[in-house]
């Protein structure tokens, strides 16, 4: 079983990155994600990726005003929306399983997709252990966007309890792309045709909140939104992009990897 997992990690990493995976002595962030998949069995991780359970933990640490209220939860969506549109349907036990429901036609789509989600064991095919014990289920939250424009998604990379970078996701519904800024709001990712994104008003609050949530971990990604200039918690990610999405430039992949290594060793990094 362990041999097949190691082989699968090597094959998927090479397939995506076109380079050999170093599991013995990871140097890149994308390699440390694979290392976590293989070795990290922290019993707290499943509760962090459980989209229902994590809200209780976040409210206990940061307060209930950080948490997007759950309007409904269960295993099968009802025939009619249980709350006024627009709303958001998510899988409790997965990542990326989301439908934005603005119309009755969207609700039909959501019911069809959700029926598939609840019979899936998310994470198995990419060896993301933390999802294995999360109960399958669905939840509904209020919609945070304006019309068809989704809110900007701020993903804070926290190493050893310190936020180092913020991945800013833009135009997720139309031309999805992201830019990585450091905690001082200086661009860290490769230059693009996009201007630097505006610094969120609540960035300092986001950083404080993310560091409080992740202070006892070598690495967590804390995802947030800003609504009416106030921060809202989105989710916790422990395997960003499953370590298979490219980080550009390559030096940023190595820099993030070094921060993760130092955090594991209990070292400071400024």
How would you describe this structure to a colleague?
The protein is α+β, with helices and mostly antiparallel strands and 270 residues long. The protein folds into 2 domains: 69-143, no CATH class; 149-264, D-amino Acid Aminotransferase, Chain A, domain 1 (2-Layer Sandwich). It is 30% helix and 21% strand. The protein contains 7 helices and 9 strands. The chain has helices spanning 2-17, 29-39, 45-49, 53-62, 104-117, 203-213, 250-264; strands at 70-74, 87-91, 98-101, 138-142, 153-159, 162-170, 177-182, 219-227, 230-237. It has a 5-stranded antiparallel β-sheet with strand order 7-6-5-8-9. The chain has a 4-stranded antiparallel β-sheet with strand order 1-4-2-3, covered by helices on one side. Strand 2 (87-91) and strand 3 form a beta hairpin. Helix 2 packs across helix 7. The mean pLDDT is 95.
Q: Spans of 5+ residues with little confidence (pLDDT < 50)?
A: none
SSE pattern, N- to C-terminal: HHHHEEEHEEEEHEEH
Distance between the termini: 40 Å
Q: Average pLDDT value?
A: 95
CATH domain class of the largest domain: Alpha Beta
CATH topology of the largest domain: D-amino Acid Aminotransferase, Chain A, domain 1
| Outline type | globular
User: What portion of the residues fall into strands of 2 or more residues?
Assistant: 15-25%
Radius of gyration: 18 Å
Which structural class do you get from the secondary structure elements? alpha+beta
Number of domains: 2
Helix content: 25-40%
Summarize the main sheet: 5 strands, antiparallel
Counted beta strands: 9
**What is the architecture of the largest domain at the second tier of CATH?**
2-Layer Sandwich
Strand order of the largest sheet: 7-6-5-8-9
- How many separate helices? 7
């Amino acid at each position: 079983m362990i041999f097949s997992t190691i082989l699968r990690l090597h094959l998927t990493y090479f397939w995506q990155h076109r380079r050999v995976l170093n599991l013995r002595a990871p140097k890149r962030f994308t390699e440390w994600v694979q290392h976590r998949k293989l070795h990290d069995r922290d019993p707290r991780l499943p509760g962090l990726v459980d989209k229902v359970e994590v809200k209780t933990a976040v409210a206990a640490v940061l307060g209930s005003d950080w948490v997007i209220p759950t309007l409904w939860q269960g295993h099968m969506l009802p025939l009619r929306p249980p709350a006024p549109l627009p709303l958001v349907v998510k899988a409790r036990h997965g990542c990326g399983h989301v439908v934005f429901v603005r119309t009755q036609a969207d609700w039909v789509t959501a019911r069809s997709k959700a029926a598939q989600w609840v019979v899936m064991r998310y994470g198995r095919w990419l060896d993301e252990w933390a999802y294995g014990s999360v109960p399958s289920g669905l939840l509904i939250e209020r919609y945070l966007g304006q019309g068809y424009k989704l809110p900007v998604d701020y993903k804070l990379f926290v190493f050893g309890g310190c936020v180092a970078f913020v991945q800013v996701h833009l135009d997720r519904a139309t031309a999805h792309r992201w830019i990585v800024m450091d905690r001082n709001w200086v661009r860290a990712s490769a230059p693009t045709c996009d201007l630097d994104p505006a610094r969120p008003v609540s960035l300092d609050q986001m950083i404080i909140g993310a560091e409080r949530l992740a202070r006892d971990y070598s690495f967590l990604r804390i995802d947030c939104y800003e609504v009416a200039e106030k921060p809202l918690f989105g989710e916790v990610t422990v395997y960003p992009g499953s370590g298979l999405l490219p980080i550009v430039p390559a030096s940023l992949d190595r820099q993030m990897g070094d921060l993760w290594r130092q955090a594991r060793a209990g070292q400071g990094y400024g």
